[in-house]
Amino acid sequence: MNKIVLFTSFAPNIGGGAVNINSIIPYFKEVDVEWLYLHDKDLKIEGCIHIGTPLTGGTLWKDLKNSLFLWLGIKTKNSQRILANILARKANVYWIVGLNEAIPIARELTIRTSTPIHFTIQDDVPYGVFARSRRYQWLSGIAQKCLVEVMRRISSLDVTSDGMRDYYQKTLGKDGIVIHPYVPCLPTFEPISLDANNLTVGHIGTIYSLPEFRLFCQALQEYAKVKGLNAQLITIGLARKYATIIEEFPELIHDIPQLTEAEAIKHLYRCNFLYAMYPFNQASAIFRQTSLPTKLTTYIQAQRPIFAHTPAGSSLAAVITEYKLGLICDRLNISDLMAAIEQLFKYDLSPNCFENARTALYGYDNVTKLEKCLKQSL
Fold first, then answer.
1. How far apart are CA 140 and CA 126, in angstroms?
2. Residue 1 pLDDT > 80, yes or no?
3. Do 182 and 143 meet the contact criterion of CB atoms below 8 Å apart?
């Protein structure tokens, strides 16, 4: 059995990246994966090993110094300790998920070992994550140089969307395969009758930009008032940095802390429709063209119409359009958002649209393609 050592800068039980990986690893037949991760504490997860705390974050000035050292490749005790922990696990292939500090760690790893390295990119960090961050925006150019170095040295690559594959092929000349999470089947639900006096909208995970989300909340609230409906927006696992939005709409937003995906799907199934968005600003253009929100996997399993609040040309818009999962609203004014809500409130889903999307995007071939790619890296 070939041994794969996987390293992530996030915990195996938190966030969309972990959900993606956990949906595939259990189905591998010819490789054995040992998962190394960074977190504030050891979470005692079977098959996973805690090897250190995150290298970034914390107070502003401390984080600025640590981030600059990290991305410039200046060695520190903490970064070298993490690298030593990875190298201590002998592997046929090292598998790195390129998010945050894992990218500069991967750069050092390519220098220190001749073992093949497989690289996964779920979000473009330099021009995606960093470009829309107030704290890390200044690091975008430095991070891009680091990513280019890594891309030139890795043995193989998988990415999260067709747009990302095309983008890296065009800009860096690096070919990769597209890997989505694996969803074995759609859940079966007991039929329900939604209350005609209520309008319930669901959202899970990250809000990428508060201004757009705030406009949607205003439009939803106003639409319900005009139609004489009781509106509720259920948010599941809302990040603390976005919690202020609840104070702005205390009667509209009902936040539920972290749930398992199965529990979240049960809540979302009882909604009239589900909300997903991408930022509209120009700085997020590459991000919305190359990323694909993990929440889309959850929404397809919940089998409710999707309100995609995004500029045209995004990866999210492409999926919603191709599989007829809902509608796209590319406007930033309340009247147009209200009109879109009216349209989606009455939306008739095409027969088998969610199963068609599951089969095409989230089928078992994601497992076989990734396992084959890992083995070919040997």
1. 4
2. no
3. no
303 residue type, one letter: Q
Strand order in the sheet with 306-309: 253-256, 230-236, 198-204, 273-277, 306-309, 326-329
Phi, psi angle pair for 7, to nearest 5°: -125, 130
Burial of 226 (C-beta count, 10 Å sphere; 0-12/13-18/19+): exposed
Residue 155's pLDDT is 95
Q: Assign 3-state DSSP to the chain and report helix, strand, coil percentages, each to 5.
A: 45, 20, 35
Q: Report the residue count for the chain.
A: 378
Chain mean pLDDT for the chain? 93
Q: What is the pLDDT at residue 254?
A: 94
Determine if residue 237 is left, alpha or beta; phi over 0 gives left, psi from -120 to 50 gives alpha, anything else beta: left
8 A C-beta contact, residue 199 and residue 228: no
Cα(192)–Cα(140) distance, integer angstroms: 48
Long-range contacts made by residues 49-56, C-beta under 8 angstroms, separation at least 24? Answer: 49/89, 51/7, 51/82, 51/85, 51/86, 52/78, 52/81, 52/82, 52/85, 53/78, 54/9, 54/100, 54/101, 55/9, 55/79, 55/82, 55/101, 56/100, 56/101
Burial tier of 63 (Cβ tally within 10 Å: 0-12, 13-18, 19+) = middle
Q: What is the pTM of this model?
A: 0.91
Least confident of 12-16, 34-38, 114-118, 302-306: 12-16
Instruction: State mean pLDDT over 144-157.
Output: 95
Tens digits of per-residue pLDDT, 317-339? 999 999 999 999 999 999 999 99
